[in-house]
């Protein structure tokens, strides 16, 4: 049996097994609703998740236990699934929906019966929808991407905020060549980029510029069916633009082709680069560590062949299969998506945000957050592009990251040829997922 078919067979078997097995709070031995969230233990964000859970317990009487895990989150879920001890609730990326559904880990959500479900953003609901049109999560948090720029550097080099990709290149060159920090040394870069392959970061980063240029990775051809589109000239143009930053203008921070976001956040904070295309979750951190007067947020400029567009992401509340507390699962999801739950997760302007942009349309973000830079992310969300509901987005993102990282690391690589080869691989992956 092929590896792909074996994977689907195991997933089907696991789905049947989990359906008949209560999770019991991941084997915790008590009646607490166990909630897993992808955050570092003891981080500000993990503490916000505990506040959310405690508020839910106070409102509902349902006891909770929050488990914060950052490293190897999916691997640990796999281990729990193999032991038939999945947690009751998982707050996880929207891009993980297809993978979790395929493996039989999540229960279907009846949108019509969810209290307050009609008050949630249509775009956010779309990110909770599987390729079969059914819903397998409840929207919790959304985000779009924008540019966080060293405003003090930009003013020192005498340039305006970038409105085109050409403007962006000029600003990056000035940050690289004109000593914007004034220390007399050529030790700054324009772009800071998490260009490594871990968790698919290279394609994750590139996607905002790909979408801003009208390109894409795959497109839907029918219900649950897709075809690869990375050989589209607009996608090629976006990847080539970034290769030029690495190889021609040399405006990217050293080591970027090996870095993940953890390292890249620090590169920006240490003043080693001045342009970071990223989500709003680091805004409060950078305000604190870099200085509020030193940074600004600017929309991703439209590409020469498309736009506007930017990566859309977020988290859903997933109701895990096999739980013996389905009523508690539903009540927690309803609370997390309610105005009260959203406000707790937003955490105002402080660090520790777990609701980046609210998904509940009854929330006035300006009333919750005083920092006007959040508005740029909110406005960008109107044209955000989510990962499509293929059965498993993870291998598509990873395969794309491997190819994109290669052309950034090897300046002799031909981007068009590389994207054509990637297109073939992605179509093969879609075929193996029976989504072609």
Strand and helix layout:
Layout: H1 3-19, H2 24-27, E1 33-38, H3 44-60, E2 64-69, H4 73-82, E3 89-93, H5 97-102, H6 122-126, E4 138-144, E5 146-150, H7 151-157, H8 165-177, E6 189-191, H9 201-212, E7 218-222, E8 225-228, H10 233-247, H11 261-269, E9 273-278, H12 283-289, E10 295-298, E11 310-319, H13 326-337, H14 339-346, H15 365-368, H16 374-380, E12 384-385, H17 394-409, H18 415-432
Parallel strand pairs: 1-2, 1-3, 6-9, 11-12
Antiparallel strand pairs: 3-11, 4-11, 5-9, 5-10, 7-8
Helix pairs in contact: 3-13, 9-10, 9-17, 10-17, 17-18
InterPro entries: SBP
Organism: Nonomuraea rhodomycinica
GO cellular component, one term: ATP-binding cassette (ABC) transporter complex, substrate-binding subunit-containing
């Amino acid at each position: 049996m092929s590896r792909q078919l074996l994977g689907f067979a195991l997933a089907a078997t696991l789905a049947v097994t989990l359906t008949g097995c209560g999770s019991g709070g991941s084997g915790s031995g008590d009646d607490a609703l166990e909630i897993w969230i992808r955050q570092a233990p003891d981080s500000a964000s993990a503490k916000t998740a505990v506040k959310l859970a405690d508020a839910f317990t106070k409102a509902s009487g349902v006891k909770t236990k929050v488990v914060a895990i950052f490293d190897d989150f999916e691997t640990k879920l796999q281990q729990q699934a193999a032991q038939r001890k999945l947690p009751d609730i998982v707050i996880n990326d929207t891009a993980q929906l297809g993978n979790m559904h395929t493996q039989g880990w999540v229960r279907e959500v009846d949108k019509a019966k969810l209290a307050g479900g009609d008050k949630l953003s249509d775009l956010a609901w779309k990110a909770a929808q599987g390729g079969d049109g059914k819903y397998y999560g409840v929207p919790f948090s959304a985000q779009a991407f924008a540019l966080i720029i060293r405003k003090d550097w930009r003013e020192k080099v005498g340039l305006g905020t970038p409105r085109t990709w050409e403007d962006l290149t000029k600003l990056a060159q000035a940050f690289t060549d004109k000593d914007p920090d004034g220390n007399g040394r050529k030790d700054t870069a324009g772009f800071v980029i998490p260009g490594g392959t871990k968790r698919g970061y290279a394609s994750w980063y590139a996607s905002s510029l790909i979408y801003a240029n009208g390109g894409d990775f795959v497109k839907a051809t029918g219900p649950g069916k897709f075809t690869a589109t990375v050989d589209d000239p607009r996608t090629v143009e976006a990847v080539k633009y970034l290769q030029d930053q690495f190889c021609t203008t040399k405006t990217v921070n050293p080591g970027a082709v090996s870095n993940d976001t953890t390292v890249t956040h620090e590169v920006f904070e240490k003043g080693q680069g001045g342009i970071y295309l990223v989500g709003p979750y680091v805004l409060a951190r950078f305000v604190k560590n870099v200085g509020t007067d030193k940074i600004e947020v600017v929309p991703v400029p439209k590409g020469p062949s498309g736009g506007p567009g930017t990566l859309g992401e977020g988290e859903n509340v997933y109701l895990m299969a096999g739980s013996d507390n389905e009523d508690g699962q539903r009540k927690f999801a309803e609370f997390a998506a309610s105005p009260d739950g959203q406000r707790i997760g937003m955490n105002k302007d402080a660090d520790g945000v777990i609701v980046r942009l609210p998904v509940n349309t009854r929330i006035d973000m300006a009333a919750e957050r005083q920092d006007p830079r959040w508005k740029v992310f909110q406005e960008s969300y109107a044209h955000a592009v989510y990962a499509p509901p293929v059965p498993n987005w993870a291998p598509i993102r990873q395969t794309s990251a491997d190819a994109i990282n290669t052309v950034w690391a090897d300046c002799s690589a031909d981007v068009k040829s590389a994207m054509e080869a990637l297109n073939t691989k992605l179509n093969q992956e879609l075929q193996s997922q029976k989504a072609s």
